[in-house]
Amino acid sequence: MATFLAGFSLGLSLILAIGSQNAFVLKQGLKNQYVFIICIVCALSDALLISFGVAGFGVIVSKYPDIEIVARYGGAIFLMVYGLLSFKSALMTDHTLLTDKKTSGSLLKTVLTCLAFTWLNPHVYLDTLVLLGSISTQYQPYVWQFGLGAIMASFVFFFSLGYGSRLLAPLFKQPKAWKVLEILVGVIMLSIAASLLLGI
Questions:
Q1: To 10 degrees, what angle do helices 20-31 and 35-54 make?
Q2: How high is the pLDDT of residue 96?
């Protein structure tokens, strides 16, 4: 149980930082759009990556640094485009949160966007494959209990964020609140893209 809790606490601490993926999940939760699907895609992606890390894939990443370079620049380009689209939406669209309205947007497009936020983010590889993978070796022979704790932290976090964001729903019935959110999301995306390009 102590090993499980160690994995859970470390996994949760790594994922708590406000990033592009979390901002996307928050936005989908506020829109009440494909929330379960988005949460499960994020959590299962983390589970897969953490499993690879615990199984020793972090060693492969450290031996082939080109993987990190490709992920860094690909992720930066994606984040810049999405960030600029958020600014465009803030300036040109008046959003309102109408929970009785049917959700708009393609499920496939939403899932692909979610996957891009997850798999084009080089930080996720550092956190899951390298960091969690290497730390798990300290818990031999209970590395999988450690990994399971980290995986559980991802499920708890993403579902709490996706469904908990509805508590903010009354605020986001105002178009101005959406504009602020879009600008905030844009700033987050562009700042992360800049940090990737600058190697910060």
A1: 150
A2: 56
Nearest to 44 by CA among 142, 159, 130, 135: 159
Q: Which two tokens stand for residue 69?
A: 């370079």
Residue 102 predicted with pLDDT over 60:
no
Average pLDDT along the chain: 80
Q: Which tokens belong to 181?
A: 């959110």
Q: Is 106 exposed, middle or buried (0-12, 13-18, 19+ CB in 10 A)?
A: exposed
Answer whether residue 108 shows pLDDT above 50.
yes
**CB atoms < 10 A from the CB of 88, how many?**
12
Structure-token match 């708590």, residue found = 16
Cis peptide upstream of residue 175 (ω within 30 degrees of 0)? no
**CA dist 17 → 22, 23, 124, 127 (Å):** 8, 10, 12, 12
Nearest to 143 by CA among 56, 59, 60, 61: 56
Two tokens, residue 78: 């994606």
Share of the chain above pLDDT 90, in %: 22
CA 64, chain centre distance (Å): 24
